[in-house]
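Subject line: Sequence and fold of a protein, written as structure tokens
Area: Proteins and the way their chains fold up in space.
Start of record: The labelled sequence and token lines come straight after this line.
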Amino acid sequence: MKNYLMYLGLIILFSACGQVEPQKEIQAESEKPGYDSIMAMKLGADDYGMKKYVMAFLKRGPNRDQDSATAAQLQRAHLDNIMRMAEEGTLVLAGPFLDSGEIRGIYIFDVETVEEAKALTETDPAIQSGRLVMELHPWYGSAALMKVSELSEQIAKKSI
């Protein structure tokens, strides 16, 4: 009988141990739920999920008197240059403003310095012709912007 009670006690003990929920990993006090340290590192994020970029404001340049065919050629070359920089990974975001103001559009560059961004903008045929000029500023924004190009490919039906 003693053996029977001892075996029964061991069975109860082992089955109770199997039902204990594993402890959840203790999260560092400063980490938010859902934080992905690997993605943060890949995107170059700091502790706030942010990183340094250079923002460019594309403004009307002094030479805008091209005929319509030349203006169309410059626009096509401008768009091709945008695609090239995006494929290289130096241009994170680009787009025109929809009004007819002085500022025509923006670029956001994934570079360390304004000088690096200036060298990139100087490759743009619209800049070279004087149709556009750039105003460059260091900017601090979400590192998640680095995913914009990848996501854009998934939702665009047509290419530029």
Summary: The chain is about 40% helix and 20% strand. The radius of gyration is 28 Å. The first strand starts at residue 50 and ends at 60.
